[in-house]
From TrEMBL:
GO cellular component terms listed in the entry, alphabetical order: cytoplasm; tRNA-intron endonuclease complex
Reaction(s) this enzyme catalyzes, per UniProt: pretRNA = a 3'-half-tRNA molecule with a 5'-OH end + a 5'-half-tRNA molecule with a 2',3'-cyclic phosphate end + an intron with a 2',3'-cyclic phosphate and a 5'-hydroxyl terminus
Protein name per the record: tRNA-intron lyase
Organism this protein belongs to: Hyaloperonospora arabidopsidis (strain Emoy2) (Downy mildew agent)
One GO BP: tRNA-type intron splice site recognition and cleavage
Pfam family, one: tRNA_int_endo
Length: 262
């Protein structure tokens, strides 16, 4: 675990090509050099993840919910049930539980949640690789019973409007599972690796982990200009448009003949 206790660093052997490729294709973590850890004389590489003198290792920094999902549900880094339960108990603060339940909710629906620090949020959601798409949703995770003021909602939506994104205010409630037994529930779940990101079911979901049932409720908000409130328009919520990135073509290299000066 890294200093601060909010991220972990995962090292993958160069021989584990499948694991490394899986982590990259599914958008897990970021290279350590993104945190400025590339020091003098080191050979950090954003693409390979190699850093410093440990060039036989590829490294990624993962958030705690991301790390747990990687082991428990996507099976990229498989772990035994006893270890998963022990980690759940160790990490099981209210803040971790909320963010993990929200994280796995969006992952199940084909979205890639990434840290939303640029917007002061918990997550931003991509429908594919961050290299190919812009994020489309900004996710704020609220405590159960927390009420957002109009000032905070206005600030959230103004930021989102400028970036052409939709705000999701998410709340997680919990209670003992109806079918709870003396043995803790298995946290593993079948995840469809070919699942396509969809707006359907984005704002609600119910899940059970280790005998506790968690219910997610989210409100989707877009900026609304109060100055046009008097106009007769239909303000029905529209699905978030797909935002692919414009991939710039590489400059062609070759012999360029210069025209003679006149």
């Amino acid at each position: 675990m890294l200093p601060g206790g909010h991220e972990v660093e995962v090292a993958v052997d160069e021989d584990d090509v499948a694991v490394w490729r899986d982590m990259q294709l599914k958008g897990y973590g970021i290279p350590p050099v993104a945190f400025g850890t590339r020091g003098k004389g080191s050979k950090g590489d954003l693409c390979t993840g190699k850093i410093g003198t440990l060039e036989n290792k590829r490294r990624r920094h993962l958030t705690l919910p991301e790390f747990y999902y990687l082991m428990a549900m996507d099976n990229v880094l498989p772990a035994g049930e006893l270890l998963l339960q022990d980690l759940w108990n160790r990490l099981g603060s209210a803040a971790f539980t909320r963010t993990f339940v929200i994280y796995q909710h969006f992952r199940r629906r084909g979205w890639i949640p990434r840290p939303g620090l640029n917007y002061g949020a918990h997550y931003v959601l991509y429908r594919g690789s961050a290299e190919a798409f812009h994020s489309e949703y900004i996710v704020y995770v609220q405590r159960d019973g927390e009420v957002s003021s109009w000032n905070s909602i206005q600030s959230h939506t103004r930021i989102a409007a400028d970036a052409k994104k939709t705000v999701l205010l998410c709340t997680v409630t919990s209670k003992r599972s109806p079918d709870d037994t003396a043995t803790p529930r298995n946290v593993r779940s079948t995840v469809n690796p070919t699942l396509t990101a969809s707006d359907e079911g984005l704002t609600s979901g119910t899940y059970s982990f280790f005998g506790i049932q968690y219910t997610i409720e989210a409100v989707a908000i877009r900026f609304w200009d109060a100055s046009i409130a008097g106009e007769r328009q239909l303000y029905t919520f529209q699905l978030q448009p797909v935002l692919p990135k414009n991939i710039k073509s590489a400059k062609r290299k070759g012999n360029i003949q210069q025209l003679p000066k006149r």
